[in-house]
Write a structure and sequence with these properties.
single chain, seven-stranded mixed sheet, four-stranded antiparallel sheet, globular
């Protein structure tokens, strides 16, 4: 079981940027993917960006392509989400998650076993 702690959320004006960070207590050897999800009031949780922990592959939901970038620092046990050109539709609670199941790049929620408590992003 890995503990995930998100940080970096806040309030920003439309068009601005934020960088979220997810600190993992440790990367389990069986971790296949790390991802960011988000959930806004009245909506389901959706995958935003994911990366394969053992490689370079990444995947983004169409709504954030070209604006968000997911990256990882192995030395720091941290996964980042750089968010640029934010819009009102990006307002949500953002969660970091780790998957031990294969085929996790598509961000199917059931494949992610470990979750952080989230960090709020508000775009005004």
């Amino acid at each position: 079981h890995v503990q995930l702690v998100e940080s970096g959320g806040g309030e920003v004006q439309a068009g601005g940027s934020l960088r979220l960070a997810c600190l993992a207590s440790a990367y389990p050897a069986e971790s296949k993917c790390m991802a960011w999800f988000r959930q806004s009031p009245g909506k389901g949780r959706e995958g935003v960006a994911a990366l394969v922990t053992g490689g370079r592959s990444t995947h983004y939901v169409d709504a954030v392509k070209g604006r968000f970038t997911i990256s990882r620092s192995s030395a720091e046990n941290t996964v980042y989400l750089q968010m640029n050109n934010l819009t009102l539709e990006d307002t949500a609670m953002y969660y970091c998650a780790s998957a031990r199941s294969p085929a996790c790049l598509s961000m199917t929620i059931s494949r992610y076993q470990d979750w952080g408590l989230g960090t709020q992003v508000t775009v005004s």
